[in-house]
UniProtKB/TrEMBL annotation:
<dbReference type="Pfam" id="PF07063">
    <property type="entry name" value="HGLS"/>
</dbReference>
<protein>
    <recommendedName>
        <fullName>2-oxoadipate dioxygenase/decarboxylase</fullName>
        <ecNumber>1.13.11.93</ecNumber>
    </recommendedName>
</protein>
<dbReference type="InterPro" id="IPR009770">
    <property type="entry name" value="HGLS"/>
</dbReference>
<keyword id="KW-0560">Oxidoreductase</keyword>
<keyword id="KW-0223">Dioxygenase</keyword>
<dbReference type="InterPro" id="IPR047869">
    <property type="entry name" value="YdcJ_bac-like"/>
</dbReference>
<comment type="similarity">
    <text>Belongs to the 2-oxoadipate dioxygenase/decarboxylase family.</text>
</comment>
<dbReference type="GO" id="GO:0051213">
    <property type="term" value="F:dioxygenase activity"/>
</dbReference>
<keyword id="KW-0408">Iron</keyword>
Amino acid sequence: MSTAHQPPASNFIHANEIRSRFSRAMSAMYREEVPQYGTLVELVSDINARTLDAQPALRAQMAQSGELERLDVERHGAIRVGTAAELATLRRLFAVMGMEPVGYYDLSVAGVPVHSTAFRPVADAALLANPFRVFTSLLRLELIADAALRDKATAILTQRQIFTPRVLELIAQREADGGLADADADAFVREALETFRWHSTATVDAETYRALQAAHRLVADVVCFRGPHINHLTPRTLDIDAAQAAMPARGMDAKDVVEGPPPRNCPILLRQTSFKALQEAVRFTDDAGAHTARFGEIEQRGVALTRKGRALYDQLLAEVRSMGNAGSAAPNYEDRLAQAFRAFPDTHEALRAQGLAFYRYTLTPTGHAHADSAAAADASLDELLAKGWVQADPITYEDFLPVSAAGIFQSNLGGEEQKQYQAHAAQQAFEAALGARVHDEIALYEAAQQRSIDQVRAVLRGTAVVDAA
Ligand code: OOG
Ligand code: NI
């Protein structure tokens, strides 16, 4: 796709760098828009510093994996869009920053009329540089029962343009040339940010807003505004229980329970909590009003699970949540969760040996000393671990959890209603709207683990090639 007048590739700003600039700009914008987010970032930063001081082994492990460096910049955000065209253009916009759609999440099962993916980097090096992720949901208007209201919402959505003309040009330019030079990259960041900005003026009158809100609060949030305002940004904490406990003292109205697995010695997947969405003044075309959408969230990430591990997680969680049909709002939820998860091994040795979680294998200094020896080349991975020639470090879970996401949605829509939709995942329809397949997240972890094993093997056999990627 190169053209004669294209600047040399070395002038292009790396996608990782554009993503970092964008994530920084987004964080600064959200701090201005929602000052409590700034408070949350400070709280998390204090708690992370304390946790690392108290746990030198954790610090050493995170330093060795490279994750210590990314910790302070690590964020995810979330947006919700209304049409296939919006979703498809977002895919192209995120591609400029090296972010690809990973995973399919059907939230209709939890009474939220959307399905979603997460745009994020996928390569090991890109994840280490900056793992910025955006959980992106597409409204499913077909789940709205009232046909007239559905048509009205569709008409409103087809009239809006959530991208600036300049960002559309820059996306096309990057697709044609393969990159963006410095000034264009900065322009891209500035223009892309406009799509995610909050607008306190709605595009509809108060009555339309109320009608859409009655269908579902989420429908009003998506349809009535000029763009898909970022609705939260989430820093990563190393001790979510400490952070949750400290939130009220800093003036934050914390959600009652932490979503995801219970506290453990070896964190798995993802644990999340949030402070509740703010009621904000908005102007309809004919009247003043209020809207609840934006909130703050924190998360703690653990090891990625294999298909077997994930099946066990889903099974144990379902056992607890199905009791009394109350989900995480049931009494004694946390006790019952902890009780059920006793069935989930809680040492890395057991998680690894039973094939429940993914690990990245590297040679230790002793292992390196034995490279190219027959003893090393013939040994199994377990033998190499037992000898201390190879070490296994947990691969961090970079994705989301549908049940947790639903809990986050529910607690932040304001209002208590629980809508029921027929559960029907529609991954193909979602991918058709997106204009691409989504990555299977578990296959990505599997490949990362396998690459690390291949690399260890190659060094031990003396056939390692210097890996350029
Ligand atoms: C997204 C909620 C899901 C998470 O962290 O699971 C989410 C939304 O409310 O739009 O962000
Ligand atoms: Ni979130």
